Amino acid sequence: MATRGVGLAVILLFVLAACQPATASPSPAATTPGPAASSEPPPSAETSSSTEASPPAPAGQTDTAWGRIWDSLPAAFPAYPGATPAEGAATGPASAVLAIQGAEAETVAGWMQSKLEQATYSTEALSGPLEDGSYVLDSTGPAPGCRVRVSIAPLGGLTTVTVLYGADCPKP
User: 149 near 138, Cβ under 8 Å?
Assistant: First the structure.
């Protein structure tokens, strides 16, 4: 009886081994856990192509987790007095990163909200102060689909302003 159980186990191992694809070396896909096996057939090429990522961003634009943005700001975009470019403070893609010496994040957030509203942007939300003392201002512009996110964060004696200027906004 024990011999029969061992024989079945050996057969089961051979069957399982036969179901595994043969590869010369493990590929990243072979070592990365994937979705659970399914009895459904794999999606066709037609289905796969319809769920692929959007086309690459055109020149002058970048895709971010927030959405597609312009890589720069229009000349008329409000900038806090004394703000200077601070690309070294960027934590990811941005339309602009600015540093302001000696200004409180709350003051800068209120100023940005006021100036954007004067420039015909509507405030969707002003969040803050967050746990780290930062503020996030979400606005919509006059053009359909135009969105802007301004993040204001205290950083030592500086306040950084990171602007994401949506790709549906007028070209800078």
Answer: yes
- Measured CA to CA, the distance from residue 43 to residue 160 in angstroms comes to 46
Note the residue count of the chain: 172
* DSSP symbol at 49: H
- Kind and range of the H or E element at 61? strand 61-63
For the chain, domain boundaries: 61-165
Amino acid at 95: S
pTM of the predicted model as reported, rounded to 2 decimal places: 0.67
163: which 2 tokens?
A: 């602007």
Q: 1.10.10, 3.30.160, 3.80.10, 3.30.70: which CATH number matches 61-165? A: 3.30.160
State both tokens at 72. 């720069």
pLDDT exceeds 70 at position 171: yes
- DSSP 8-state class, residue 88: G
